[in-house]
């Protein structure tokens, strides 16, 4: 297993050493694709994959994701970024360029339900999640030994109604300054606006319903009481509105009248972990752009 | 095509001549299955299919559907029903027995969108919908010639805010006393409580969203604005609460950020017609029992 | 209904008057996207949608689909095509540019099963299938009146083992020279290599199984006998190898032990018509490129 | 986590202490359901769930699964079984009655791919797989520490072309006489007919394709080469015919031209583990009956 993972990673790493991903959002207008692709060509970059989407041909927003190879990327990227500034300004772009070899660093938050954490660790261990899991933070101590057996630091930060503010402060300290993404893997605490502000569009939550149905607590009980024939799960970025942030991914499973709440939970667990894993992978691969309360997902 | 349909129907009709379906709802208790199956056996009936479901083994509700063959059914059913009265009373059952050969009579309500009507007529013509389509009622006259080309009576009953009450009165007159099921095949008018009372649990509506998400008008626009990644449709019995009645069937389809409202509508049309057709078929085959605001579907 | 269709079509037609779609296949190499997008920009075209795919970054094939608007397209397209010749030659491209307003002309072949034909006509009538249905050809006369009620010419060309060659000759005569796509909508005759040669990658067949499982006749009986838990349908381009051509689209539906062959057929019909309709729509919208025995579908 | 599992188990165990499951296969005939349910009622048993299926009303096979509660089950079951012998003989039944509290004992075979094993252990640990995992047998030693961390015995039995016979002999010794089910969780060795004979309809394999497509080795490479748009996995009982045994469960996932073989494998892993877990759960809950080369699954 050890060997298997390493082989996958080595192959991937060689391929990715000189690869970068560019994400662009801007008002639509003529010539953007032409300008960007010509710019990259003239700077010696080879476009491997390019996706774009225009929300509305007349006066809407334009979104683009370009994956490209550039010889000696680490050495040459700063110059390319400096030169691209002019292009970005011309089209009023928000843009970023990420080196693929610079893996994103994740902090996973978890409470007592372990299935989403187990899934993410399994994807990570199998070499399918191209990120570093920098730490796991939990308001319970139950999963310490499991997490630490992977060599991942585990921080137990209890949260009560009274200590919520201090707990978040402690979380921020532990997280420090080099975490790219926070994953709420069935973390059963509401995140404060202050905390969200630190990680705008960088906190992914898994909600155990097919949003916008069954916002809030006990969604499986709500689903059972409504008598739905299909249940689902939703991965979304966390905003100040409870379960109201931009949706990244959803999936569903058929159920029947004979499934009680416990069975809905059991079926739902598999949906939740698959949906969360997809959303996290897409984010780490720079496939998700956020515009207002919606996502553009290039996958 | 003519020939094909007739063959299907003939084979089915022979098989079904002596077949009946019994539906039972009652408080759960020991010995129900044993009593019912023994009763049928002793009356010369052969059980072809039997399904049951107990909502909760201790003190819940019990639901049962039995399909059985009885020699000379038409002649012998009245005596069997009379004798079953004692069993029904013993267990406080609500029960019905339907002859399969006595097809249910449907009235389809439609406005301007034709896809659900087209679907039902296609299933009916293909011999897959085992019911009689007795009439189509519409608040517009657009589909008259299409409907009449199938030999089905078409009634144009306009509805405005002012004439709603009279229109419903006229609908009831046209429907008369021998319609078993009303199907709202994208009929864009709200049904009054008075009308609903006439057809309790016998009006099926197709709502063009994955309920309970996006209740009310313009659900595809709502779905687009919320940025969902999956859309759906829901067939449900109509109650006094708008889009709140017992759900019979739902289905969904994956969409992406690049699908605008018109594309959601287009994708949705195929979900709507499939979901509505399934719900209508299940109802006509006595597969749906209603308890409070939920359905038990034996399929 | 009449009005509804026309409104859709008018809106679409205005939008599409100056729109074109370019399809490119060529060996991969640096600078293709940059060169094409720069070319279009310099010729006054605005890229509305661009998709590309490289089969293998090192030495594989490159595929591209560009949707663009060009003012006064009809007048300006010939010059643009003439100028693009140099780009095409430089990268050894196979390329085509289609005016969106120039709808593709379809000939639909059908035998006795009508569901796929009904579906295509419904999509077409609803304004969702952006093509002209120029004619329906059948080896049976059953559907003449149905087809003619849409104002579509119907040609009855009987086929027997002995007359097959003559029948195909007659089909080719009826088809003439301005048909873009032949759709085998459950046409139960094998097409000869000679006929296929006339319409290479322009004959779409619907096979009623999840290929490559259950090639050949009676796939639902084969599926029943194997006891599969999911059945499917496959739309593919017709090649000389029976049911072996490039797959455009597939879909599936869950079944159970209790579904007999007739029920598999019934369930399958809905899969077949949905899958075929999607494949035909994608082809008519220039979304499908064929390479060897596989398709690239930009959707 | 520890606590959570135990609570689930305790609640389940109390409920199941007096619960049994009866499985019946026999030629169809009148009165079977009536006789069985009357028998159970007269012996003081309360039917909790009853499912049956007749392959063909006239002269086919009949299958039944009854879940029932009997006071003091352990004490009273032997007498009930003795008395039922007469019923079984009357209808030429194959029948078994299993105490739910007597959990099935599993031996899991695995090679180098760990995802199916991880899944089964996660379901087991979460209290969702109602069975005992008695041992893991592998032809490699890689997963020893992982398996042993759950307190499950791990047996490393290497297999080469030359030592196959001895290896199977050793496996049989290790397995002993009290294993109910063998699960091949991506065990990449072909099982000999001799071994199969010991565990007829008690070896479940997961094949990484949508059978009967892509029998044998490298199914994902086969799927890629054929250009399918959907991939799948199949759980089946192992018979002497390679990948040809009775199918228990299948599921699928949509893919596209842009997914290479490695990506198909990655997507497939999630299908495989879900499908295998379902099949194993259904088998352990006595939901699967085998008739010839097909399964009847009551779920």
TrEMBL record, chains A, B, C, D:
Pathway: Purine metabolism; IMP biosynthesis via de novo pathway; formate from 10-formyl-5,6,7,8-tetrahydrofolate: step 1/1. Pfam families: ACT, Formyl_trans_N. Coiled coil: none annotated. It comes from the Bacteria. One of its GO terms (biological process) is one-carbon metabolic process. Residues 21-102 form the ACT domain. The active site is at 243. Catalyzes the hydrolysis of 10-formyltetrahydrofolate (formyl-FH4) to formate and tetrahydrofolate (FH4). This is Formyltetrahydrofolate deformylase. The gene is purU.
């Amino acid at each position: 297993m050890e060997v298997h993972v390493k082989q996958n990673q080595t192959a991937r790493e060689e391929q990715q050493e000189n690869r970068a991903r560019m994400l662009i959002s801007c008002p639509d207008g003529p010539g953007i694709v032409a300008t960007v692709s010509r710019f990259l060509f003239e700077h010696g970059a080879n476009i491997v994959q390019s996706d774009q989407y225009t929300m509305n041909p007349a006066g809407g927003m334009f979104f683009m994701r370009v994956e490209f190879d550039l010889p000696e990327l680490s050495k040459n990227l700063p110059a390319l970024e400096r030169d691209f500034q002019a292009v970005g300004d011309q089209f009023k772009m928000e843009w970023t360029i990420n080196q693929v070899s610079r893996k994103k660093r994740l902090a996973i938050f978890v409470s007592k339900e372990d299935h989403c954490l187990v899934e993410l660790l399994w994807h990570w261990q199998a070499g399918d999640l191209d990120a570093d899991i920098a730490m796991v933070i939990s308001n319970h101590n139950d999963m310490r030994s499991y997490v630490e057996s992977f060599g991942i630091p585990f921080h137990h930060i209890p949260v009560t109604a009274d200590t919520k503010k201090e707990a978040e402060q402690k979380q921020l300290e532990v997280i420090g300054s080099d975490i790219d993404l926070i994953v709420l893997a069935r973390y059963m605490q509401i995140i404060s606006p202050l905390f969200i502000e630190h990680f705008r569009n960088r906190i992914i939550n898994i909600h155990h319903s097919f949003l916008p149905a069954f916002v809030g607590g006990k969604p499986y009980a709500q689903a059972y009481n409504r008598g739905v024939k299909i249940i689902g799960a939703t991965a979304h970025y966390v905003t100040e509105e409870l379960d109201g942030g931009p949706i990244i991914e959803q999936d569903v499973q058929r159920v029947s009248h004979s499934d009680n709440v416990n069975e809905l939970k059991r079926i739902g667990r598999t949906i939740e972990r698959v949906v969360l894993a997809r959303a996290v992978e897409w984010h780490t691969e720079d496939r998700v752009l956020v515009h207002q309360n919606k996502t553009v997902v290039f996958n």
